TrEMBL record:
Residues 42-340 form the Sulfatase N-terminal domain. One of its GO terms (molecular function) is arylsulfatase activity. Transmembrane segments: none annotated. Residues 103-132 are annotated as: Disordered. The gene is aslA. This is Arylsulfatase.
């Protein structure tokens, strides 16, 4: 047991030092083999709010004031963005590479999978370039500031510096502002973990959101069964606590946006959503979770509450306003490449968000972390979910059934054909490794047993 866990600030400092040393060792012999050019140089800021689902954004119609800062974001908002994966490790790799998990290789190499028992995925392939790789080769300084170690475990080695502390948005934004100061041309990835269990709930928002004093609210209860008289009370309280945590992260973005230089491209998104018992029975049909958890959390489903996330971009090539077109997080890097006029870059799977008028382009979410893998493909308002290992397949017409209450059999031919265009892809070069201290934090976050 780590004796410093009784002293959170000291433990965070110690853990961050360990991350930095490990990062230095990983990068000390690294060479940048790309020759990227930048025709229109600007700073780039990615902000990821972990576990942020699209339908809990107040600007998209949610009935609690969760995101007033983002509601007034000076850019374009997308209320139907699809995460490339329902958990952080593959999703962040897709966000910064512009490629899907089956293309960058940051995924499991076997089925079924059980992340909770330390069956780890392979890391993204070294020959798949990411945005920090490309921008570093063009002279940018690159950094990651994160409250979630899975982001670092996925692609932290692609950044010149990392700062990993398991702290709330206030501290993480402070660190981000310090990192940006006195730098000329930079790319920063900031990942906030407040809505990720265990929740960071600001005291000032407990009363605002009516968060009651209920046992186990920061984490999860009723994961195996909801047959209890207290369940509905707990579920309501847990949702209120989640919303209060979102608001806490949103609060800090105001001062972040005020401080960044004018010539900064800004992207804000969730890396995946979060489930609150919407589809417990359907999840049992589609999956055999080794933990016995259904209907909560993330990483074991590709249903809408986990797969659909909000996305905001402030990019000169993308018009301001709101857009409900189905897009993907793999579209972000091509959008940045277009805006910066990057030269000597690879092809990306996504398309620039300046070209979203064509809604017939299919997108995919894949690579669950528990049980058999599931893959979901959207084509317009039609959605297919396939479990390759078991042969289970269902589909939905989201236009008629946005809540996925009525799974259908026999998917239309065009939906099946769209799914088959993606193929099964490749795997990464090496397994993700975790030291004992990081293992403790991943267990606290619910990833490991």
């Amino acid at each position: 047991m780590n004796p410093l866990k009784r002293f959170p600030r000291l433990n965070n400092l110690w853990m961050n030092t360990r991350h930095k040393v490990a990062h230095w060792r990983e990068r000390r012999d690294r060479t940048v083999d790309y020759d990227t050019t930048v025709g229109n140089p600007q700073n780039v800021l990615f902000v990821v709010i972990d576990c942020l689902r699209a339908d809990h954004v107040s600007g998209f119609g949610y009935d609690r004031p969760t995101t007033p800062t983002l509601d007034s974001f000076d850019g374009r908002s997308f209320s139907n963005a699809t995460a490339a994966s329902p958990w952080t490790f593959p999703s962040i790799a897709s966000l910064v590479s512009g490629r899907y998990p089956h293309e960058h290789g940051g995924r499991f190499d076997s089925d079924p999978r059980d992340l909770s028992s330390e069956q780890f995925p392979t890391r993204p392939r070294s020959d798949v370039p990411t945005l920090p790789d490309l921008l570093e080769s063009a002279g940018y300084e690159t950094g990651m500031v994160s409250a979630i170690p899975m982001a670092d475990k996925s692609v932290g080695d692609r950044f010149q510096s990392v700062d990993i502390k398991y702290t709330d948005a206030t501290e993480r934004v402070d660190t981000a502002l310090e990192w940006m100061s006195n730098r000329d041309r930079w790319f920063l990835h900031l990942q906030l973990g407040d809505p990720h269990a265990p929740l960071d709930i600001p005291d000032r928002h407990r009363e605002r959101f009516g968060v009651p004093d209920v046992d186990g609210l920061e984490d999860w209860r009723f994961r195996e069964s909801t047959d209890d008289d207290e369940f509905e009370q707990y579920r309501d309280a847990r949702l209120r606590a989640y919303d209060a945590a979102i608001r806490g992260a949103d609060d800090e973005l105001g001062r972040l946006f005020e401080a960044i230089p004018d010539d900064t491209i800004v992207v804000v998104c969730g890396d995946h959503g979060e489930a609150f018992w919407e589809h417990t029975d359907l999840e049992r049909r589609l999956n055999d979770d080794p933990r016995g958890f259904y209907g909560t959390d993330h990483g074991h489903s590709v249903l809408e509450e986990v797969a659909t996330v909000p996305l905001w971009v402030d990019v000169p090539t993308v018009d301001t306003g709101h857009d409900d077109t189905r897009v993907s997080l793999v579209d972000v890097v091509p959008t940045i490449a277009e805006a910066l006029e990057l030269g000597n870059t690879p092809e990306f799977s996504g398309r620039p968000l300046s070209r979203t008028a064509d809604s017939a382009t299919p997108v995919i979410c894949e690579e669950t972390g528990y049980g058999y893998n599931q893959r979901a493909v959207w084509l317009g308002e039609k959605k297919l979910i396939d479990v390759p290992e078991t042969g289970e397949t269902v589909w939905f017409d989201l236009g008629d059934d946005p809540g996925e209450k009525h799974p259908l059999d026999d998917p239309p031919a065009e939906l099946r054909e769209a799914y088959e265009t993606f193929g099964m892809g490749v795997h990464g070069d090496e397994k993700m490794e975790v030291d004992s201290s990081t293992r403790d934090r991943l267990a606290e976050l619910g990833y490991l047993e």
